[in-house]
């Protein structure tokens, strides 16, 4: 199985050098790529706006334009949006006079005006004399009664001199404070972000990394400015021998989800589709076991056997009869008792993967059961939640077959002060470090997934990921690191689709399961 393609995350200096080598001074090629970037930003922003609300019939877009190519990208994104929605309008606010802009940015403005001059209002550039109060007043005047449905930050790019100078500093403060912008987007990097420590920047809800992801946007301290990252692949790294090597951090291409799109062989049966044994749940935390089991079933595994406390068995078997629910002895407090090991061992020879952890609880006897279970199974295992304990992992045989799925707090518990790279180098395990932008780390590989939605910040989403990942491991179509990456992408893409249909708030975590099919059957 070929490794998943991941494009490198470069410093600003390396990005500039790469672009110079890639374009070789070919202005027309650069213009074509700028159009590709602008169209991708426009399409992506229209999709992401739906996470907040249904796009209104006559949306208003604020376009902030600098003299460089980020400004051109923003103008072409606005052009795409106005072409897609014939009733949309744009307010264009340039940083400087148009004759100071780079030629491609001027050309982008001309094309925007040619498309929809009557639906565009151009403002005068801000000046130092305006002051922050004047800038705020201007925003109020231009926003109209409904405000702006979206803004696009194309002011500064990766060559910007920081910190921000006036009038830009006041401009950024005024826009950040202005509440009548529904969804805020940034081209490539928010204005004010750079290699140095950021004092102030233009806040974005979504940052669209066009062609190359720059290192400043993945720094945790910049998350409050960048919002959710989206990677727009422009084909820079498709040729072998270019910058896409495995020695540096990279971002996964969401297009690799197509690998999950396949017809099953006509002569297959349920055993050919994998058999996952899930060890999960306690008397007080049974819902986690149910969610993980439902996710595994929905992800297409042939058989799911679930070991749960015996007090949960009757109700769980009635609720989800597709799974085989195995009642196991309980401790007095409702956890899984070590006494159940013999029964578990009866099922392990038939299992092709294990998933352990959701809802197990913190009892020491349950953790002893997990340790013993791992010693009797030689296949791939995903460990999550309460199974992520130093006392469990330190004794686990063949740690290179383990996939660990911690959030930041759980990772600190098992890794002490080690970095993710050092931890996997020492253990050989695959690490799925869950967060705003999940990282998948295995020996020699460090991938980021920018696919997902803040909708996932709710109880149960991690249990669903465990079930999906367990299913992919059990099916054994892909190797362990690839299965981990595909599970993260699939889980995140389903969350995006759900958020665009129903928003980020009024949903259940389990609603995500109904969108797993759409997430792999459709291109984005």
Describe the structure.
With 524 residues, the chain is of the alpha/beta class. The protein folds into 2 domains: 7-245, YjeF N-terminal domain (Rossmann fold), CATH 3.40.50.10260; 267-521, 3-Layer(aba) Sandwich (UDP-N-acetylmuramoyl-L-alanine:D-glutamate ligase). It is built from 17 helices and 19 strands. The chain has helices at residues 12-23, 27-49, 69-84, 103-116, 131-143, 168-177, 223-226, 286-298, 313-319, 341-347, 364-375, 390-393, 408-415, 420-427, 461-475, 480-502, 516-521, and strands at residues 6-10, 60-65, 89-94, 120-122, 148-154, 181-187, 206-210, 213-214, 228-232, 250-252, 275-279, 303-309, 324-328, 353-356, 381-383, 402-404, 430-433, 439-442, 445-448. The protein has a 12-stranded mixed sheet, with helices on both faces. It has a 7-stranded parallel sheet with strand order 4-3-2-5-6-7-9, with helices on one face. Strand 18 and strand 19 (445-448) form a beta hairpin. Helix 5 (131-143) packs across helix 6 (168-177) and helix 8 (286-298) packs across helix 15 (461-475). The two termini are 24 Å apart. Mean pLDDT is 94; it is low at 241-245.
């Amino acid at each position: 199985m070929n490794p998943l393609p991941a494009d490198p995350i470069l410093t600003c200096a390396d990005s500039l050098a790469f672009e110079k080598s890639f374009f070789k001074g070919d202005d027309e090629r650069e213009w074509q790529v700028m159009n590709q970037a602008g169209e991708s930003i426009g399409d992506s922003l229209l999709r992401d706006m739906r996470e907040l609300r249904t796009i209104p019939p006559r949306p208003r877009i604020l376009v902030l334009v600098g003299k460089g190519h980020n400004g051109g990208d923003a103008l072409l994104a606005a052009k795409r949006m106005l072409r897609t929605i014939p009733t949309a309008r744009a307010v264009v606010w340039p940083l400087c006079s148009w004759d100071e802009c780079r030629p491609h940015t001027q050309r982008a403005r001309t094309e925007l005006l040619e498309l929809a001059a009557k639906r565009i209002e151009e403002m005068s550039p801000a000046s130092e004399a305006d002051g922050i109060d004047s800038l705020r007043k201007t925003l109020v005047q231009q926003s109209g009664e409904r405000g702006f449905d979206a803004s696009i930050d194309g002011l500064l790019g990766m060559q910007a001199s920081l910190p921000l100078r006036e009038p830009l500093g006041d401009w950024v403060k005024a826009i950040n404070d202005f509440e009548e912008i529904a969804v805020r987007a940034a081209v490539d990097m928010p204005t004010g972000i750079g290699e140095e420590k950021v004092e102030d920047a233009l806040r974005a809800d979504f940052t669209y990394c066009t062609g190359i992801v720059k290192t400043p946007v993945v720094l945790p301290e910049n998350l409050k400015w960048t919002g959710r990252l989206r990677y727009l692949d422009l084909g820079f790294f498709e040729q072998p021998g270019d910058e896409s090597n495995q020695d540096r951090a990279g971002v996964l291409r969401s297009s690799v989800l197509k690998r999950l799109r396949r017809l099953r062989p006509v002569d297959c049966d349920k055993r050919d589709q994998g058999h996952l044994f899930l060890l999960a749940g306690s008397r007080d935390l049974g819902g986690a076991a149910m969610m993980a089991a439902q996710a595994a079933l929905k992800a297409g595994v042939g058989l799911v056997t679930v070991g749960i406390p015996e007090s949960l068995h009757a109700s769980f078997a009635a609720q989800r009869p597709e799974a085989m629910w195995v009642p196991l002895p309980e401790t007095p407090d409702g956890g899984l008792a070590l006494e159940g090991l013999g029964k578990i061992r009866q099922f392990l020879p038939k299992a092709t993967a294990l998933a352990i952890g959701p809802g197990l609880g913190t009892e020491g006897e349950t953790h002893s059961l997990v340790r013993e279970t791992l010693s009797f199974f030689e296949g791939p295992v995903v460990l999550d939640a309460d199974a992520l304990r130093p006392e469990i992992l330190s004794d686990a045989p063949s740690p290179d077959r383990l996939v660990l799925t911690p959030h930041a707090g759980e990772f600190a518990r098992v890794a002490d002060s080690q970095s993710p790279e050092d931890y996997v180098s020492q253990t050989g395990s695959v690490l799925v470090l869950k967060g705003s932008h999940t990282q998948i780390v295995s020996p020699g590989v460090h991938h980021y997934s920018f696919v997902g939605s803040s909708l996932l910040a709710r109880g149960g989403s991690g249990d669903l990921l465990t079930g999906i990942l367990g299913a992919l491991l059990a099916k054994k179509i892909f190797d362990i690191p690839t299965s981990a990456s595909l599970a993260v992408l699939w889980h995140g893409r389903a969350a995006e689709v759900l958020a665009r249909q129903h928003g980020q708030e009024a949903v259940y975590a389990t609603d995500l399961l109904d969108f797993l099919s759409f997430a792999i059957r459709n291109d984005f």
